[in-house]
Write a structure and sequence with these properties.
The protein is an alpha/beta fold. It has 2 domains: about 280 residues, P-loop containing nucleotide triphosphate hydrolases (Rossmann fold), CATH 3.40.50; about 260 residues, Class I glutamine amidotransferase (GATase) domain (Rossmann fold), CATH 3.40.50. It contains 19 helices and 25 strands. Helix 1 packs across helix 9. The site of glutamine has 10 residues, from strand 21.
Length: about 550
């Protein structure tokens, strides 16, 4: 039966709870334990699938097709454990389940209340798969005291009470601000936050304190005393140069030891941190730098393409080089010639996206990369744009476009080289979508197999002829253009097993030009860089050596 670690935050948001949870997961693994990480989000959206990346950052997709919070990406990158649908839940999902049951009459005429019906639903979620791992790490989104979060806090309090003693612990993350006027670290916000937590019946076992300065022994003692935790369980979380330093840094401060102590696990198994030492060595001892232009839409918010940024870093680590990713708003290329902006970049990446805005700019970026022989990686919409570019400029389909942009009824502007897929095969059954289905969850989502053509560049990169990658899209490249496009040099080197859906396109006579319908970035890890990103950066490195 799993032991549970609940990770909460107080005072201010964005303190790095997700990262702390992920790093703790990695540290427990390093001591030989199996882990699973979960996120409970207080917002009312049923899942983040319908949220703009501007709202909440990237939507992370799991193998089993759930659209989840980007923190699940951190969890996977740090532990290598593939997240599942059942690892992410929001208030919206919980309420929607409860209301569905109410309508079905499952509650047998009872009055439905937050306690116990909503809290029970949350507890059921927490219990899924509890026999599979040694530790279940559950992060509660938001901060203690938020109105939406209350049912979650109440549920974890009850959950710990339901379990045998010593099976659940609480880790609380707060800010220890430094006030320069007095030259002091202030403990009051932490004290207040812990007080708030205790007022709802939760006593933290471990405190993680975000601080930009070293925490003096005196302050540590004071916090321990006022917050009723052991001194050894007051752990500093200092600012880090890179997120991948977190496991080693938290270990140095004693986080994993404090957690094991709180559970009474003694003697604690010795950790093997070689993986993280190697990761840091690759990051810190990188030579040279490649510049990659990311031509996308949501360029103002870094989190919108979180996994891509990380996968590029991993690609750099595989080559022991630094990757400088620079974000360019694709709309710029709708007004201006891309050449002066893209000159000097060693590679171009066009990421996924939705809607028409900026797409003509992305098409021009793909054209630039193709014509100038600059390594190009097109992901999802980025592949569709590369195909449209080739259709227009090589295969003479002058008005090639995507059905996604032709929404005005009776007014067709494009020949749909990319079309709206209504029906496809998943495993052994057919999935159907209607045009007017709800926006949430109507995409081809999650892991699908692709068959790679023998002798293709991608089969060499993957060292395989069959791969599985994660998808999140509604539209598909129309396979009927295959012959015409292959005749012009754009080969369809990866296909769905039934041969109907193009998964990968590539240009042979080009230093490196690949478009993929899926999201390889979601599966990249610092200790196992994704082969496509590793090879993309290698190709960029070659370009950088030429100039
Ligand atoms: N908008 C495109 C589609 O739905 C691409 C999606 C994406 O890039 N994730 O097919």
């Amino acid at each position: 039966m799993a032991r549970y670690v609940f990770i909460t935050g107080g005072g201010v948001s964005s303190l790095g709870k997700g990262l702390a949870s992920a790093a703790l997961g990695a540290l427990l693994q390093a001591r030989g334990f199996s882990v699973r990480l979960r996120k409970l989000d207080p917002y009312l959206n049923v899942d983040p699938g319908t949220m703009s990346p501007f709202e909440h950052g990237e939507v992370f997709v799991t193998d089993d097709g759930a659209e989840t919070d980007l923190d699940l990406g951190h969890y996977e990158r740090f532990t290598g454990v593939s997240a599942r649908k059942t690892d992410s839940v929001s208030s919206g999902r919980i309420y929607s389940n409860v209301l569905e049951k109410e309508r079905r009459g499952d509650y047998l005429g009872k009055t439905i209340q937050v306690i116990p019906h909503v809290t029970n639903e949350i507890k059921d979620f927490l219990r899924v798969g509890e026999d599979e791992v040694d530790f279940m790490l559950c992060e509660i989104g938001g901060t203690v005291g938020d109105i939406e979060g209350l049912p979650f806090f109440e549920a974890i309090r009850q959950f710990a009470q339901d379990k045998p003693r010593g099976q659940c612990i609480f880790v609380h993350l707060t800010l220890l601000p430094y006030v320069s006027a007095s030259g002091e670290l202030k403990t009051k916000p932490t004290q207040h936050s812990v007080k708030e937590l205790r007022s709802i019946g939760i006593a933290p076992d471990v405190l993680l304190l975000r601080s930009e300065r070293a925490i003096p022994e005196k302050e540590r003692e004071k916090i321990a005393l006022f917050c009723n935790v052991r001194k050894e369980a007051v752990i500093a979380a200092y600012d880090l140069k890179t997120i991948y330093e977190a496991p080693l840094a938290y270990h140095r401060e004693g986080l994993d030891q404090a957690v094991l102590d709180a559970f009474g696990i003694s003697p604690a198994p010795k950790p093997n941190l070689d993986r993280w030492v190697d990761v840091m060595d690759r990051l810190e001892n990188a030579e040279g730098e490649v510049r990659v232009a990311i031509v996308g839409k949501y360029t103002q918010l870094e989190d919108a393409y979180k996994s891509i940024a990380e996968a590029l870093t991993h690609g750099g680590m595989a080559n022991r080089t630094r990757v400088r990713a620079e974000w360019i708003n694709a709309e710029l290329f709708e007004r201006e010639d891309p050449s002066p902006f893209l000159e000097g970049f060693h590679a171009i990446l066009v990421p996924g996206g939705f809607g028409e805005r900026g797409t003509e700019g992305k098409i021009r970026a793909a054209q630039y990369a193709r014509e100038k022989g600059i390594p190009y990686l097109g992901i999802c919409l980025g592949m569709q744009m590369a195909v449209i570019e080739a259709a227009r400029n090589l295969a003479q389909v002058k008005d090639a476009g995507s059905e996604e942009f032709d929404h005005e009824v009776g007014k067709k502007r494009f020949t749909p080289v990319v079309y709206h897929l209504k029906e496809w095969i998943q495993g052994n059954h057919i999935v159907e979508r209607k045009h007017d289905d709800d926006k949430g969850g109507t995409m081809r989502l999650g892991a699908y197999t692709a068959t790679l053509a023998a002798g293709s560049r991608v089969s060499e990169i993957y060292h395989a002829t069959e791969i599985e990658e994660r998808h999140r899209h509604r539209y598909e490249v129309d396979v009927r253009y295959r012959e015409a496009l292959e005749g012009c040099g754009l080969t369809f080197s990866g296909m769905s097993p039934d041969g109907r859906l193009p998964e990968i396109v590539e240009i042979k006579d080009h230093p490196w030009f690949i478009g993929v319908q899926f999201h390889p970035e979601l599966k990249s890890k610092p200790f196992a860089p994704h082969p496509l990103f590793a090879d993309f950066v290698r190709a960029a490195l070659e370009v950088s050596r030429l100039v």
